[in-house]
UniProtKB/TrEMBL annotation:
Name of the protein in its database record: Beta-lactamase-related domain-containing protein
Gene3D superfamilies per the UniProt record, alphabetical: DD-peptidase/beta-lactamase superfamily, Tetratricopeptide repeat domain
PROSITE patterns on file: TPR (PS50005), TPR_REGION (PS50293)
Domain Beta-lactamase-related as annotated: residue spans: 25-349
Species of provenance: Chryseobacterium kwangjuense
Keyword terms, alphabetized: TPR repeat
Pfam family, one: TPR_8
Segments annotated as TPR repeats: 434-467
Lineage: superkingdom: Bacteria
Length: 482
């Protein structure tokens, strides 16, 4: 009888815990949807290898007020890259690819400067290759005037390298285009067929497919964004508009997948349970590469969010500034958020959602903890807050890139004062980085402080004499002051 009562007590306690977590999730989601003006959102939570929460909010189709459902399909955008990363690591596991091997070992017809670039350098975006995205139509993402893959390829090969391979990071679609070619070459099948056979089918994904705005996709959530609109008197940035975008078929290893939160959750379960990769290979994929100076890369292999902190490590990715996923291997937890609004940046609040299941996660992530507190005490107190937080917790550290990206996301939603203080904080934390001064100078210029902007751009150029863009902006500022 006592054992029975204990079991019943545990069941009731777990049920109450789950209900509290779900209520907290609802509160956060409703707050963020209101603040960010997100029309529709879909999310799922995986815990201990099972989907414990799957919820839909708002409308998927604003025009016809179609509600988001569990089978509503959202574009994954750059979250596609994690699937490409897994496909490459499957080939590594099979002995067909070596991470330190030059791409020229697998592909021919490459410019001389490209031939020594390794698979690892493609996965981690330190190749220095020119970005093929710059050759696409900026409005639609299509191949534009160049028309064909062959034309894009020839133009791309004639474009100079952006920097010396292995010296710096630059997010770049060409890297994953080449990885797609490696997959096709070594599997003797299209990457679309390879993904279906080696990932979608084993994970039993029912609503995951390649496509873009040209394709007819059932239960599809169109993509929206808020754009500036001139009504004849003033510029209004509150107009919701349809987004039209194309991912040329040959480039879809970088951003061509569409899926549901539940499907992504099933894929994560398959990934972590050994159905897609061995545990040793998974750990290798979730480890950073190396720059030429021996420092760790910002990306791990195929995954752009790598919070490799001492406690509550998190690996994930974001896509299109409108979808995000985070996996907490040590906590046996994962959170997926998909939205239909470009600029919604759910990566800002995913860790807070994870904190509904483990509150320590919020304290472990400096960015989430910082954001949550600055909303209360004011962004102008960012430096003071960080100083006090670091005294109490020496492991309280933010990454330069994280803060920089956060600042730019604030700019996209016209929170200039908040962005100004985040860029100022980044300069305080990383005084030897030329890029933080460049970004701080940019926001100072936007907010009208030209003299301070000049000071920041001078410091940026002093630290990096090759900052040609900074030199040009500095020259432009001076010409307006004269």
């Amino acid at each position: 009888m006592k054992i029975y009562l204990v079991i019943v007590s545990i069941i009731i306690s777990l049920s109450s815990y789950g209900q509290r977590a779900a209520a907290d999730i609802d509160r956060i989601i409703h707050r963020e949807m209101k603040e960010r003006r997100i029309p529709g959102l879909q999310m799922a939570v995986v815990q201990h290898g099972k989907i414990i929460l799957s919820k839909s909010y708002g409308v998927s189709n604003v025009q016809d007020q179609v509600p988001v459902k569990s089978n509503t399909i959202f574009p994954l955008n750059s979250n596609t890259k994690v699937f490409t990363g897994v496909a490459i690591m499957q080939l590594v596991e099979q002995g067909k690819v070596k991470l330190n091997a030059p791409v020229s070992e697998y592909l021919q017809d490459l410019p001389l400067e490209w031939q020594k670039i390794t698979i690892d350098q493609l996965l981690t975006h330190i190749s220095g290759l020119p970005d093929m995205l710059k050759l696409f139509d900026p409005l639609t993402g299509s191949v534009g005037a160049l028309r064909t893959e062959a034309a894009i390829w020839e133009k791309l090969k004639a474009t100079p390298m952006e920097f010396k391979t292995g010296e710096q990071f630059s997010y770049n679609q060409t890297n994953y285009y080449l990885l797609g070619k490696v997959i096709e070459k070594l599997t003797n099948q299209s990457f679309t067929d390879n993904f279906k056979e080696k990932q979608f089918n084993p994970a039993r994904l029912k609503n995951t497919l390649f496509g873009d705005s040209r394709d007819v996709i059932p239960d599809y959530a169109p993509s929206y964004s808020y754009r500036n609109f001139f009504d004849g008197k003033r510029i209004d940035g509150n107009k919701l508009a349809n987004n039209y975008y194309e991912f040329p078929d040959f480039s879809r290893t970088s951003a061509g997948l569409n899926s549901t939160a539940e499907d992504v959750a099933h894929w994560i379960i398959a990934l972590q349970s050994g159905q897609l990769l061995k545990l040793s290979t998974l750990n290798q994929m979730w480890s950073p590469g190396k720059f030429n100076n021996g420092k760790d890369t910002e990306w791990v292999r195929g995954w752009g969010i790598a919070k490799l902190r001492k406690n509550h490590k998190a690996i994930g990715m974001s896509g299109g500034n409108r979808s995000a996923l985070l996996i907490y291997p040590d906590d046996h937890l994962a959170v997926i958020v998909l939205t239909n609004l470009g600029g919604s940046a759910p990566e800002d609040f995913v860790e807070e959602l994870a904190g509904c299941y483990n509150p320590d996660i919020i304290k472990a992530d400096a960015l989430t903890y910082l954001r949550k507190n600055l909303q209360t005490i004011g962004y102008e107190n960012a430096i003071d807050f960080v100083q006090k937080a670091k005294k109490g917790n020496p492991d309280f550290n933010s990454q330069e890139t994280e803060l920089n990206n956060w600042g730019y996301r604030l700019l996209t939603v016209h929170k200039n004062k908040e962005a100004l203080n985040i860029f100022k904080l980044n300069v305080y934390l990383f005084p030897s980085s030329w890029n933080v001064y460049d970004s701080y100078g940019e926001i100072l210029l936007k907010t009208g402080d030209k003299n301070k902007a000049i000071e920041m751009y001078r410091k940026s150029i002093e630290l990096n004499p090759d900052n040609e863009n900074g030199k040009k902006i500095l020259e432009d500022i001076r010409s307006t002051i004269k």
